Task: structure prediction
Amino acid sequence: MENVVLIIHLLLALGLIAVVLMQRSEGGGLGMGGGGGGAVSGRAAATALGKLTWILAAAFIVTSITLTILAAQKSAGSSVIDRLGVPAPASEQSTPDVPAGSDLLPPAQGDDAPLVPKAD
Result:
């Protein structure tokens, strides 16, 4: 189901790009320039490409929301770690060997012996 919606979504995106690029430019992007009238001029009649753009945009938004809902349902209640199939650690957690407190202290004042690591 998710793959079908994803393919439709991608086709809608490509179609929307194509329809927008085929439309006639009004000149002066974002309403800059373009000649007299400004806010006083009437709105141009909707063309077939304009209507198709709205239809494709609405369908694109619907498929986007559908994909979001499908992804949320698929991941509900589980994490990525759960889907990896790695066995859970044992319920009893063993504490690592903690060195004695005297091992953590710096050498004494007169202690000149080299510090040699111990093999455990």
Residues 37 and 50 are 22 Å apart (CA to CA). The chain has three helices and no strands. The radius of gyration is 34 Å.
